[in-house]
């Protein structure tokens, strides 16, 4: 059977629509989430606005950062939706990212990421945002990391 150009485009359009409309668990703006055992990162009562808390997630080799921004953020948790966490490994060449002046900054090549917009890159050489760490807050105020959205730079799988 010969496939015409028109039929090939129809087939490819159907595949694109299926992938965008929900085959799989991808959400708009986020990569598929990979769940790992939940770990305690801190407690909501001890967080201070704009004071980053560094921790390892999803394993001991992966630097991560938790921030209470003091303003709502996409994917944020807590009463004000202002607590977020991300991989602290730059998506350009794997340098450690730091929180300064309300943004996540890579000191190696000056890529900058907006923590209120799911760590979307807005300046520098990085071409993708930082992987987001999903958080939940337990009844006692403990903040638990329980999933990673995206792939940590330099890895073929996160764990």
Automatic annotation (TrEMBL):
Pfam families in alphabetical order: Rieske
Top-level enzyme category: oxidoreductase
Single GO MF descriptor: metal ion binding
Superkingdom of the source species: Bacteria
Record keyword Repeat present: no
UniProt entry keywords in alphabetical sequence: 2Fe-2S, Disulfide bond, Iron, Iron-sulfur, Metal-binding, Oxidoreductase
Record has Ligase as a keyword: no
Gene3D superfamilies noted in UniProt: Rieske [2Fe-2S] iron-sulphur domain (2.102.10.10)
Residue intervals of the Rieske domain: 56-144
EC number(s) stated in the UniProt entry for this protein: 1.20.9.1
PANTHER family: CYTOCHROME B-C1 COMPLEX SUBUNIT RIESKE, MITOCHONDRIAL
Protein name: Arsenite oxidase subunit AioB
Organism: Meiothermus granaticius NBRC 107808
Gene behind this protein: aioB_2
